[in-house]
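Sat 14:20. Reprocessing the chain from the morning session after the first attempt stalled halfway. Input below, unchanged.
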Amino acid sequence: MQPTVNIEGLVGGYTGPGGKTILPHRAAAKLDLRLVPDMKKDAAVAALRAHLKARGFGDIEVNVTGGYDPTSTSSQSRLIQAQVAVLKRAGIDPVLWPRNAGSYPGYVFTGEPLKLASGHFGLGHGSGAHAPDEYYVIDSANPNVQGWDGAVLSFVQYLYELAK
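Finished this time. C-alpha cells:
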C-alpha cells in the first residue's frame, strides 16, 4: 500500500579468503523501488538522488537499469470481475490484493493514452517465478490444483466471461 525501497544486494570491501585490514575502496547496492499510484519512476529516482545528496552522499553514482511507472486497476472493472466469476465457478473464493508483490509493466495499459484495465489471471499452479526452478503442473493429482488442461480451459472461460 506504500512505496518501498528494497535492497536486492550489497557488495563492499574485501570478500576473498582470509582477512584484510583495509578500508573498502568501493561498495555497491542494488535497489528495487516499488511505486504506488500517482508516483512516477523518474520522480522516484530524482527523490532518491536528492535524499542521498541531502545526507552528504551526493557523490554516489545512481545507475538506473530499468523500471516503469506503477499500475492500478479497480476491483470493480469488468476485467477483474470476469476473473472473479471464473474463479468462483471453479470453487475458489478469491482474495483481491490492492497491490501485487511482483511487478510488471502494466502501466502501458493502465496509463495514458489507453487507460485500460490490466490484471493477472490463471488457474494453474507454479512456483519460483522467473527462476530456473520454476515449474508448471502438467497433470495434477490434487483436485484443488489445475494441471495444464484446466489452466488452459480457465483462460477460455475467462475470455467467454469477458465477452458477455
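The chain is about 30% helix and 15% strand.
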